[in-house]
C-alpha cells in the first residue's frame, strides 16, 4: 500500500516536471524532444514496465508518424518554390484576411483527411510565405494548431485518437463506423473551427503588404527534413513511454472520478498523449454524453503547451516558437474553451 502510494506520488511529480521545467530551463526548452523521452523513460522505470517487447512495440508505433513527417518533408522540399507562388497567388486573389481564415479553418478540416502530422507542415510553409510580424505569426500558428487538433477528431484518418476511439466503440451498443465520430463530435467541433478562422481573420494586420521577414526563417534543406523527422520520432517515443508509464496513475484516477472531474483532469493532455488517455478512459459502457465530455476535454487542452499535440511540436520546431511564447497564447485559449464547452455540454445534456 505504502509502496503504491509513493509510486503514484512519483509519477505525479513527473507530470509536474514535464509541465514546468521547459519554462525554467532554456536548455530543456531547446531539447524538448530528448527531455520528454527522459521523463517518459523515468515514468516507465517507476512503473516497472521495461522489457524487450515493450521497447520494440513503442519504437515501432512511433515509426509511421516519423516516416510520414519525413515523406511530407521531402515533398515540401521539392515543391517549396511552387508552394510560395501558389500562396502568393491566393493572397493576391482573396486578400490576407480571407487567406488567414482559409488557412485556419481549411487546415482544421483537412487534418481529418491528411492527418494531424502533414497539416502542421502545410501551416509552417504557409506562414513562412505570408511573412507576418513575429507576434502575429506565433498567434496564428497556435490558433491553427488548435484547429488542426480539433479537426483531426472528425475521421479515423485524422490521427491515433480517433482511430482508438472508433475501435473501442465498434461493437455493441454503438457499432461505430467511419463517420461515427463525425456525427458525435461534428456539432461541437465545427463551430469552434469556424470561430477560430473568423477570429484570426479579424486580427489587426500591419498596413500594406505582408512583407515582414519571419524570425529564424531559413529555407527547407534536406538536412532540416531529416532532422525534423528524427526529432518527431524521439518526441513520439517519449510521449508513448510517458503515457504507458503514467498508466497506473491514470487508471486510479479514472476509476475514482466523475465525468466532470475527468473532463478537467484531461487537461493533462497538455503534456501527455491524448490517444493513450482516451484508450484508458473511453469504453462502450459509457453514454454518448460522457464520451463527448471526455473527448472535448482532451482536444481543448491539447493547445495549451507544445507537448500537448504533435502539430504543436512540428509547427513550433519549424517556426522557432519557444515554450513561453506558445503558453502565453495557448494556456488562456485552452482554458477559455474548456470553461465554455464545460457549461455548453452541461446545458445541452441536462
Structure commentary:
This protein has 350 residues and is mainly alpha-helical. It is built from 14 helices and no strands. The protein starts with a helix and ends with a helix. The mean pLDDT is 84.
What's this model, at a glance?
The chain has helices at residues 2-24, 26-30, 32-46, 52-130, 134-151, 160-168, 180-201, 222-245, 247-255, 259-265, 274-281, 288-301, 310-319, 323-348. With 350 residues, it is an all-alpha fold.
Largest sheet: none
Count of folded domains: 1
Report the structural category: mainly alpha
Mean pLDDT: 84
Q: Could you name the ranges where pLDDT drops below 50 across 5 or more consecutive residues? A: none
Strand content: under 5%
Radius of gyration: 20 Å
Cα distance, first to last residue? 40 Å
- The total count of helices amounts to 14
Helix content, binned percent: over 70%
Instruction: Spell out the helices and strands N to C.
Output: HHHHHHHHHHHHHH
Question: How many strand segments?
Answer: 0
Which descriptor suits the 3D outline? globular
Amino acid at each position: 500500500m505504502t509502496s503504491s502510494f509513493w509510486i503514484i506520488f512519483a509519477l505525479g511529480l513527473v507530470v509536474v516536471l514535464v509541465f514546468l521545467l521547459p519554462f525554467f530551463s532554456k536548455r530543456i526548452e531547446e531539447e524538448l524532444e530528448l527531455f520528454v523521452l527522459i521523463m517518459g523513460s523515468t515514468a516507465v522505470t517507476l512503473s516497472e514496465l521495461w522489457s524487450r517487447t515493450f521497447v520494440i512495440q513503442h519504437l515501432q508505433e512511433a515509426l509511421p508518424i516519423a516516416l510520414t513527417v519525413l515523406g511530407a518533408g521531402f515533398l515540401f522540399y521539392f515543391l517549396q518554390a511552387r508552394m510560395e507562388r501558389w500562396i502568393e497567388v491566393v493572397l493576391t486573389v482573396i486578400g490576407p484576411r480571407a487567406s488567414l481564415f482559409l488557412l485556419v479553418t481549411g487546415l482544421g478540416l483537412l487534418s481529418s483527411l491528411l492527418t494531424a502530422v502533414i497539416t502542421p507542415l502545410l501551416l509552417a510553409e504557409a506562414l513562412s510565405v505570408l511573412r507576418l510580424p513575429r507576434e502575429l505569426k506565433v498567434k496564428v500558428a497556435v490558433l491553427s494548431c488548435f484547429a488542426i487538433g480539433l479537426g483531426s477528431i472528425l475521421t479515423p484518418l485524422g490521427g491515433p485518437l480517433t482511430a482508438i476511439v472508433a475501435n473501442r466503440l465498434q461493437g455493441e451498443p454503438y457499432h461505430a463506423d467511419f463517420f461515427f465520430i463525425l456525427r458525435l463530435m461534428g456539432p461541437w467541433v465545427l463551430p469552434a473551427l469556424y470561430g477560430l478562422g473568423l477570429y484570426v481573420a479579424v486580427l489587426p494586420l500591419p498596413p500594406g503588404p505582408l512583407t515582414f521577414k519571419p524570425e529564424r526563417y531559413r529555407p527547407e534543406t534536406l538536412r532540416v527534413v531529416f532532422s525534423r523527422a528524427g526529432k518527431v520520432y524521439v518526441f513520439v517515443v517519449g510521449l508513448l513511454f510517458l503515457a504507458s508509464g503514467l498508466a497506473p496513475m491514470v487508471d486510479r484516477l479514472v476509476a475514482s472520478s466523475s465525468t466532470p472531474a475527468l473532463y478537467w483532469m484531461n487537461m493533462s493532455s497538455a503534456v501527455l498523449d491524448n490517444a493513450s488517455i482516451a484508450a484508458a478512459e473511453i469504453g462502450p459502457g459509457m453514454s454518448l454524453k460522457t464520451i463527448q465530455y471526455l473527448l472535448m476535454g482532451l482536444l481543448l487542452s491539447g493547445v495549451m503547451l507544445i507537448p500537448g499535440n504533435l502539430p504543436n511540436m512540428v509547427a513550433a520546431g519549424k517556426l522557432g516558437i519557444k515554450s513561453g511564447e506558445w503558453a502565453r497564447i495557448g494556456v488562456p485559449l485552452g482554458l477559455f474553451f474548456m470553461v465554455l464547452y464545460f457549461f455548453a455540454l452541461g446545458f445541452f445534456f441536462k
